[in-house]
Structures are given as structure tokens and as C-alpha cells.
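Action item from last meeting closed. Structure (308 res):
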């Protein structure tokens, strides 16, 4: 079912026996997004354990690359365990980790602080990397009063504001982050990711980090540095850690504008699964310009291709 939409677009097709066996021959590492690929909320997607087991038995490296910043790598490893999957922290690349690594690689001064709009995962990774940070859950119950003698004093030592998904976002957090970015000279504005929506539960799609990041863009009139997908920032770590050429990697994800674009930007093979936010009509929409190499309904489809 190969097709070419227009001159600028890539051809793409439903994954076939032949395609998968070719991938199995040429790919050394499979990179998986999590939400909508491995699980939906706290529910494992059908056939995932057997699929991962099969790939491991074929000697393939398995890596999880997630934009969801709510958890640290350690917390993700625990979530995998609870779902019955044995995954080590070294196999997990989360955008919370990427935010900490961005500051580390850019020699963020140790005497400066980081303000966080987001969840515990970001704070945990920042602390692990040796940074002083605050905000996040501890500011979730703070409120402001719009009266003439009220003001919020912000810390002038804040040199970076990291924004990720925050289900407890409030006006205090938005105000504090805005003050730091607008008033502290050189203060960085870092977004873990800009996903529009995600499966925070298996019942429906919820507003993603793009919602919180968008609010700070609006109040500061600044654009963030994005460290999650589709930015290839995390790819540098993957390549260095696993010493595998990106051409020998296959990115498997459910989102076109993050997962598939990330894979393409890095030069990986790409496989879209329709078990998350993207439907076949969305992929086939003539306005969509991001096309994976292949698509299939869910990751466990590949089990059917084995040995053929
Ligand atoms: Mg996803």
C-alpha cells in the first residue's frame, strides 16, 4: 500500500512481513515511546510484554524515550515493574532527565537555582544532577490575592525555569515562573516538551505540557528551549551510551509531531502505531506532512510477522 502524497512527502505503508524482517535484520535498537505505545495511563497495551521479550531474545537493545516529565527514570522503572515489565533505569530516557542533562551540559552555575512548573520527576532528576531547585508540587496549594498591597517576591538567584506537564498548575506558579524569566537577567526558559495532549488515563486524552509551556510563552513573549521529542537533544545520549548508528535504530511511537519527527530528525527508521493519539484518518489527512516509514495498529502486530 505504498503511496506518495505529494512531491515533498515521504512514501509510507502498512508494515508487512517483509518490512519487519528487513527491520529485524538491519536494526540494533528499538526506541519506544511509552504513552499510547506501551501503556495508556496505568493500563498495559495488549501483547507488549511478549513483544519486548521477543525483541530482546533476538539481541535487540530496547530503549524507552518518553516526553512525559511527571516521573524520573527511577519512578518510571518502578512503573514498568508494577506493570510486570523488567526495565532498568539505564534503558529509560525521560524528558525530566533531559532537562537536567541540558543544564549540566550547558554548565549551568551551581550557585544558581531552578524553578520548576511540573511534577516530582523533574525535581528528582535535577537534584540527582546536583542542582538546587524548588517549586513543583510544593507550590500546588499556593494562591495569590489580587489586591493593592499584595505581591509575590521571587528569588533573584533563579537562573532557569523548567516547565513540564503539571496537573496542579495554578496562577501562583505561572506568576512566579513569569517573574523569574522576565526579571532575572539571562534566566533560561526550558520546556520538557510541547505535547498538545496525552493519555494521562486510559479513558481520554488530557491537555499535555504544551498547555503549560504555552501559558509561559504567552506571559513572557519568549520561546523555550525544548529538550524532549522532537528535539534530538536526547539522541546524543542514546548514541553515546549505546554506540549505535541512528540508521540502525527504529523509533516506535504514536505521535507524528513528536515521536516520528524525532526519529526522522535523527535519521532513524520510524514506525507509527495507531494505539495512541494518532488515527489512520489523521495520518492520511492531506494536510499532514509527517509520514513514518511504516505504520501498524499496535506493537504486538510484529509478533505475527516472525518467522515468515
Ligand atoms: Mg505517546
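Sequence:
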Amino acid at each position: 500500500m505504498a503511496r506518495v502524497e505529494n512531491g515533498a512527502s515521504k512514501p509510507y505503508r502498512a508494515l508487512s512481513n517483509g518490512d519487519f524482517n528487513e527491520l529485524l535484520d538491519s536494526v540494533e535498537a528499538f526506541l519506544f515511546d511509552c504513552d499510547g505505545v506501551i501503556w495508556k495511563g496505568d493500563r498495559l497495551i495488549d501483547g507488549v510484554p511478549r513483544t519486548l521479550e521477543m525483541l530482546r531474545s533476538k539481541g535487540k537493545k530496547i530503549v524507552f524515550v518518553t516526553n512525559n516529565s511527571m516521573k524520573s527514570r527511577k519512578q518510571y522503572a518502578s512503573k514498568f515493574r508494577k506493570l510486570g515489565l523488567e526495565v532498568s533505569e539505564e534503558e529509560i530516557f525521560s524528558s525530566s532527565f533531559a532537562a537536567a542533562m541540558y543544564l549540566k551540559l550547558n554548565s549551568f552555575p551551581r550557585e544558581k537555582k531552578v524553578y520548576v512548573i511540573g511534577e516530582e520527576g523533574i525535581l528528582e532528576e535535577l537534584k540527582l544532577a546536583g542542582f538546587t531547585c524548588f517549586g513543583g508540587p510544593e507550590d500546588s496549594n499556593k494562591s495569590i490575592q489580587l489586591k493593592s498591597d499584595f505581591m509575590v517576591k521571587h528569588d533573584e538567584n533563579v537562573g532557569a525555569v523548567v516547565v513540564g506537564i503539571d496537573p496542579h498548575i495554578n496562577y501562583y506558579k505561572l506568576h512566579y515562573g513569569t517573574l523569574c524569566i522576565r526579571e532575572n537577567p539571562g534566566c533560561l526558559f526550558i520546556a520538557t516538551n510541547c505535547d498538545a495532549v496525552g493519555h494521562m488515563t486510559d479513558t481520554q486524552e488530557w491537555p499535555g505540557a504544551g498547555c503549560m509551556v504555552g501559558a509561559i510563552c504567552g506571559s513572557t513573549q519568549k520561546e523555550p528551549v525544548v529538550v524532549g521529542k522532537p528535539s534530538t537533544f536526547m539522541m546524543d545520549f542514546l548514541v553515546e551510551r549505546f554506540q549505535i548508528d541512528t540508521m540502525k535504530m527504529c523509533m516506535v511511537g504514536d505521535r507524528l509531531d513528536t515521536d516520528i519527527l524525532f526519529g526522522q530528525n535523527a535519521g532513524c527508521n520510524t514506525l507509527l502505531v495507531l494505539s495512541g493519539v494518532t488515527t489512520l484518518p489523521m495520518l492520511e489527512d492531506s494536510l499532514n506532512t509527517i509520514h513514518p516509514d511504516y505504520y501498524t495498529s499496535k506493537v504486538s502486530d510484529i509478533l505475527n510477522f516472525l518467522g515468515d
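Note appended to the action item: The CA atoms of residues 2 and 13 lie 5 Å apart.
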